[in-house]
């Protein structure tokens, strides 16, 4: 069975921003060579699936199945609802032996007579596989189906398509992805939390950084090395953000705490959250940790590279990473 993600009905009633796939088909599941692709309506059977063992120049390459036509004119249809309140991004890979015009339509049903709105047209030339994409700004009304109409230029014989995808794209949407692993800190030492923030919507956004203050003080955030509390993102743009904070000196050893960074758009229409988890350790434990000037952070890893909890060490050999004002150093540490 094909793997379709039909999420539009739920999303139409959501008050928050989102970005998801309405459809993704790489033709890898349930298809048979020479037969109509599963899940698609092809009234004249002019679109059929194919299979090749070798990679045929797609980038990226997600399998050896595809869909193709050798008709002068052919249609195929898929149920994928579109609504006038949303925007969409269509995406596909294609190749031909000459030139084909590929038209994407929206309509009320799975037939050419019911395809009433032309969304966009792309011309597929001969050569290697090429990736095509297009944003659809608006549609006039609700449409339950879209169709793909292929028209051959003179002399063209073969059109192949693969990895057809329809994404929902909204005005304001973004995400924050942490790039810092959980760590250990001494009381009154500094944490550095790194995270990537990406604009998933189709409008520029202003992001407001709002860190928590439960366990930390002296909190500052930086974008591209400049301290700030807000920053700008264009559509599809990603920026690396660093939030630095000092663990309160009153935090008890053994406490499991966290640094939450709330990110809010200036329109108050979308939010994101990223968290750095911290275990507080004893700076006076010189038997297990070096007494370095300006010591800020100590982490232990087993010999496989996995980070381990320093409060529950079993006897064995570990790699100790120390961060201080002098830089980062590592040494072998043996727990008896």
The largest sheet, given as strand count, sense and whether it forms a barrel, is:
6 strands, antiparallel
- Topology, number of strands: 23
Low-confidence stretches: 1-19, 56-60, 286-292
Number of helices: 1
**CATH fold group of the largest domain:** Jelly Rolls
How much of the residues is beta strand, in percent? over 45%
* CATH C-level class of the largest domain: Mainly Beta
Radius of gyration: 27 Å
Number of domains: 3
Q: Helices and strands: which structural class?
A: mainly beta
What is the overall shape?
elongated
The overall pLDDT, averaged over residues, is: 81
Regarding quaternary structure, what we see is single chain
Order of helices and strands: HEEEEEEEEEEEEEEEEEEEEEEE
Distance N terminus to C terminus?
A: 55 Å
Helix content: under 10%
In CATH, the architecture of the largest domain is Sandwich
Notes on the protein architecture:
The chain is mostly beta strands. It folds into 3 domains: 162 residues, Jelly Rolls; 107 residues, Immunoglobulin-like, CATH 2.60.40; 39 residues, no CATH class. It is 1% helix and 52% strand. The chain is built from 1 helix and 23 strands. The strands form 5 sheets. Strands 1, 2, 3, 5, 8 and 10 form a 6-stranded antiparallel beta sheet that branches. The chain has a 5-stranded antiparallel beta sheet with strand order 11-13-18-15-16, with no helix packed on it. The protein is elongated, with a radius of gyration of 27 Å. The N terminus is likely disordered.
